[in-house]
Design a protein that fits this description.
Shape: globular
Oligomer: single chain
Number of strands: 2
Strand content: under 5%
Radius of gyration: 23 Å
């Protein structure tokens, strides 16, 4: 006769808890490939732009202020680098292929277009609704104030430019932002300095170069095809790196990081702002610094109310690249455009930090909507960064000018 053991309970499988250093190591590996992916993707898209020469044409042909703004939005959204676009604009002004007043409108568009990278990164967390809501809200806290600042300053700049007639033919003059920048250019002497090198580009160069060399070898003379393949590899690598980064930010590592971020780096709004400014100056790319915050805030390591001042700091930090581009080969026009870029982002900070609840609530509302129905995230991305610029370009060219 078999006697069963009393109170026998089935064994519950235990989950192995890995130590903090393990998660930290793999999070750094994932972060490295995440940064590589952004540069790989940007390299591929720049190859496409150079081979088809549409980047320079799209911006340089923008004599209409609205065309210049929308073209810069479209170009920056595609190459995913406002630093690239603003440097290109400043170079065109220095070569006298673009007027200063038109360049200022184009710089405004670059500030909108640079927000697309963070939104794309946030889409990688769509499988987990709560995490996606936080990630998407983080990305929007960069996009929303940039769009609202353009809606505020673009009409003001355009109206004051029309009112300030120049010459016997009544040619429109320059707006208040441009005239202020030109006055500061004449008042401040900027010595010639060399263009800085991004440490992110230095540490990711081996991987980026290996990918580019391998694909260029396979595609040989088909440069455009090579650019497309490089961009695709960068996109796939970005999502793989993002998944690894998010997974290792959870659990034991998230507990450690929460204390570091909440008690040290993001203890108050000023420190958060300084962190955004310093990070962007260090890496010379607001696309990198803002996109890096998306998975960190999405995982809960940073409170959403501290994300907003961080993003404002990133906007100030991104102006450094333009200043370097202008002063490396200084002309009055190029320096004026760089200063106008600085003034634009200072205005962005001065206006929206006191009124921060407006963009924060808009971001939270849009992210909640996207979390319930994810198609709204794609609709917003396509509308702001692709459909609206294209429609605006067509309308202004056919019916206004």
């Amino acid at each position: 006769m078999t006697v069963s053991k009393p109170n026998s309970m089935p064994k519950i499988p235990t989950t192995k808890v890995r130590p903090f250093w393990w998660h930290a190591m793999w999070a750094l590996v994932a972060l490295y490939f995440f940064l590589c992916a952004i540069n790989i993707m940007g390299s591929g898209l720049k190859v496409i732009g150079k081979e088809t020469s549409w980047l320079q044409t799209a911006i340089a042909e923008g004599d209409n202020p609205l065309v210049a703004l929308l073209a810069a939005v479209l170009v920056t959204a595609i190459v995913q680098s406002s630093s690239f676009t603003t440097s290109l604009i400043i170079t065109l002004v220095a070569a006298q292929e673009m007027s200063v007043r038109t360049a200022v409108f184009a710089v405004m568009g670059a500030n909108i277009g640079t927000s697309v990278t963070g939104i794309i990164v946030s889409l990688g967390t769509m499988r987990i609704r709560r995490q996606f809501r936080r990630s998407y809200c983080t990305a929007l806290m960069h996009a929303v104030p940039n769009v609202m600042t353009v809606l505020l300053l673009f009409p003001l700049e355009w109206i004051t430019a029309v009112m300030a007639k120049r010459g016997p033919d009544g040619e429109p003059g320059v707006g208040i932002l441009t005239s202020t920048a030109e006055w500061l250019t004449s008042a401040i002497g900027l010595g010639e300095i060399g263009k800085g090198t991004s440490p992110v580009k230095l540490i990711t160069k081996p991987v980026v170069s290996a990918v580019k060399d391998a694909i260029n070898w396979m595609t040989e003379e088909a440069a455009v095809l090579g650019g497309v393949l490089i961009a695709v590899v960068g996109l796939v690598t970005l999502f793989c790196g993002l998944v690894g980064l998010v997974r290792n930010l959870k659990g034991a590592m998230l507990t450690k990081m929460e204390g570091l971020f909440s008690k040290v780096i993001f203890r108050n709004d000023f420190l958060a702002w300084i962190s955004g400014l310093g990070t962007t100056v260090a890496v010379q790319s607001s696309s990198v610094s803002t996109s890096l915050m998306v998975p960190i805030a999405g995982a809960g390591a940073v409170k959403l109310r501290r994300v907003f001042p961080y993003m404002l700091g990133c906007n100030i930090g991104t102006t450094v690249t333009g200043v370097l581009a202008a002063t490396a080969n200084p002309t009055a026009g190029a320096v004026s455009v760089a200063i106008a870029h600085v003034l634009f982002n200072i205005t962005d900070n001065l206006v929206w930090y006191p009124l921060r609840m407006i963009p924060i609530r808009i971001s939270k509302w849009l992210s909640s909507l996207a979390a319930r129905k994810r198609k709204h995230a794609f609709i917003f991305l396509a509308t702001v960064f692709l459909i609206a610029p294209v429609i605006g370009l067509v309308i202004t060219e056919l019916f206004i000018f």
